[in-house]
Every structure is written in C-alpha cells, then in structure tokens.
Amino acid sequence: MKKLAWRRAVGWLLAVAILFFLGRTVWASWAQIAQSGFTFQFNLPLFALSLLLLVPGRIFAVEAWRRILSELGNPIPLRFAVFAWFVSNLARFIPGNVFQLAAMMMLTQSAGVSKINIVLSQAVYAVIALSVAALYGVTLLPIAPEYVPLIISAFAALIILFALPAVFQIMLNVSAWLLRQARRNREIITPQIRITFWQGLIAPTFSLCMWTINGFAFWLFVRSITEISPTAIPTFIGMNAAAYFIGYASFITPSGLGFREASLAFFLGAFFPAPVAVSLAFLTRLWSIGGELVGVGFAVWWKPKPTADNRPQTPENSAQSAVGGPHR
After folding, report:
1. Considering its fold, how many domains does the chain have in total?
2. Is 4 among the domain residues?
3. N or C: more exposed end of the chain, with fewer CB within 10 A?
C-alpha cells in the first residue's frame, strides 16, 4: 500500500511539474504572440461536431474489445459493453492506469464476466490499439510522397498480422504469463482460443477506425478555434494517436497527464508558435474530457435494462423472460 501511495504521489507531482513548465512557456511568450496579430476564433458547430464524433470513434474501440472478450468465452451485448467501457474510463485519472480495470470488473460482474478475462482482453486490445497508434505516429516523420504507398502497406500488414490466429494466441500467452508473474499465481491458465482469420480482423480494423475518427475530430476541434488547412488532416490524425501512445506509455501519471500535453505541444509546434501550440494542447485535454463525459451520458442513456435477475438484457434472456423464465 505504501508503494502504491508513493507511486500516486510521484505521478501527480511529475504531471504538475510538466504542466507548470508548459504553462510558464505560454506566460513568457504570449505577449509576443499578441503583437504578431495571431488571433483565435470560435466556431460552435465545428466544435460541437468534433465533440460528438469522439463517441462513435470510441465505440469502435469498445466493439474491438468486446469481440476479444467474446472470443475468451464472455460475450456481452454491445450496449452493456459501451456502458462498462465509458463509465470505467472515469477511473483513468487515477495514477497507474489500473483502476480502470478494477472499475470494469465491478461493472461487468453482473454479466458473469471473468475478472481474468477482463484483464486478458484489455491487454490484448491495448497491444493492438497502441501498435496502430505507434504506426500512425511514424507518419509524422518526414516522408517523401512516393513512400506513401509503403505506409499504407504497413497499416495493411499490421492489421493482417494481428488477425492471424497464431498471433492472437501468442498475445494471450504472453498476457497470461505476465498476469501469473504479477499475481504470483501459477494456477492462472492460458486460454486456448479457436479464432478464424476473419474474426481476428475485427479488432485491428476497428482500432484503425477509432484512431482515424478521433484524429479527424481533433482536427475539427483545432479548426473550430483557429485556421488550419484540410491538407493537415492526416498529420493531425497521426499526432493525436502518437500523443495518446506517449501518454499511455508514461504509465506513472494519471491518464498520461503532462506527457500527452507536452508531446502534443511539440507536434503542434510545426503549425503554430510555441505558446499557441501549448495552449491548444491544454485545451485538447479539456476537449477530450468533455468528449468522455458526453460518452458517459450516452452510455448511461443507452444502457440496456437489467432482467429480473439483474443481469444485462440479451436477446436470449429477454426471450426467456417473455415466456416465464428458462426452460429446464
């Protein structure tokens, strides 16, 4: 417990330190920006659209995770998965990136979902999603136009790689081994999954869709504040994914706080003066939180009604309920 408390304290201190130095950059240089004539603007329709797009973008992530969980033997309805995902996401602001798992375990307990399978499914999904995000980050490197087909081929190859049943099993094997080491429990058994290539395509493809939609929403958000060319959309998709990857990989700060802002400010520096880039990075955090809250509101509204035994409603138990319960 003491080690966990120290880790939380260090995480918050590090996040505050990074944000402090970013804020000092804005404060020290803002007068120069004001003299240059740079102005912000605000386009409410574009801002609202950017906020709303975050919800369907992240539902792609939910469906990717739900399919993985289903392959592990715990199928749950999409509506219930959306509820568990968005509500448990609120715990990401606690340092360590593990409290989201605890919240998800608690929320899915009524559906009979195994706690081990929650960890394994989230681990496999994280590997897939972060790999796609890292590849998107590679697109930020100076690349000659003639090499664009190579990047497209790299995305296709990555999706095909993760769709291979053998690769899916390897990810499960490694995740289960790490879990055994972390919990010092040799009784945790590695699931042996039979999955087809076409089933395996869903998670990496939907992860790609999620990062693409979220990145486009990020461009719309910046466009709602200041002028930015539509030709920059691919770059903004890449920098959004790369900043998330860096923030997630930092692990020690709550929800990548500080690291994500610093990396995003660095990337935005190619388009805007330093204090403007830092300001946009700060505002992006608030915008992202706003999108998550919109998602939570939608998830709570869309949540399926529980059955008489307090389990999430599915077509099977809904039909059973209509005829007076399950046949014995």
Report:
1. 1
2. no
3. C
